[in-house]
Amino acid sequence: MPARPTTRQAFQATVACAVALAAGQLVSGDRWYWAVGTAWWIFVNTASRGETLVRGFRRVVGTVTGIAAGLLVAVPVAGQALPTAALVAVCVFGIFYTAAPSYSWMMFFVTVMAGLLYGLLGVLHPGLLVLRLEETAVGAAAAALGVALLPVTTHAATDAWIRRAVECVHRCTAEAARRLGGDEQADPAPLVAELETLLGRVRLSLAPLVHPLSPLRARRARARQVMELLDVCAREIKGLSAVAADPQASHDARLTAACRRVETAVHALVPPCSTARRAMDFGPAPQHHPGAEAALRHLHDLERALVELAAPVRTSPRSPLVPAA
Fold first, then answer.
1. Which one, of 23, 193, 26, lies nearest residue 38 by Cα?
2. N or C: which end of the chain has fewer CB within 10 A?
3. What pTM does this model have?
């Protein structure tokens, strides 16, 4: 089995499209490409078995509801240019408006628009819409078969993104520490933006586990706890970055110890990063300063969140969570 997830996903997509091609032709010799297209698009922007299965489910749901709407809307106005143009414009708006928040709604509008365009061509009838549903189901089933044969597990994909997010938290803390230590060249703001991007990817990776229909209750609770704690980390990093940007904030002896504790908590989750470790080092002559109180609060809360994060991240994904003391 290929070791690299991207290579494995390439094999998954190839197998899924081959199965969709064969099965799609059995359903319809003229519209088999609908099944192949469904199998292909399900793999786009997915990185794990869970993401692919959820995306396939949402595509089928969007197609089913789109066909129901097509029977009510597209069939009655078939061939009428002005109503069709107006409805297509609404569908185009709906596709782009819902693409990011809801794949199911996007597919709903895509299906309705396809029905309207087939009406303009004079080939629309209820049987064609039913055929689209059948080919979509074939493509989704082929994608599910592909990820079953060469799985990239949701846990493996999620763990990789969580590690990258925690490493980014470490680098953000190090950069803020350098800024608080008097290094005017240090700027944690770009790393804060990078952390937001990584957390967005973590949320996407965890989506299959927190899906309302997921039967894995223990893993759902674990995924929610991980996301909540990472959100706490992001909030404290933003606050720490804001304090570091304040020219009145200065070096404080207590910040060194607090940053070291954060570093220890990070290393409990991911392997030590020598670059970040060097960045944690402060300059000489530490002094207490009132402006560091806010930074200390953020560092303490960040440390607490990282320590609590160790429980859901380091234990088996199938074992029940033990509430933090």
1. 23
2. C
3. 0.63
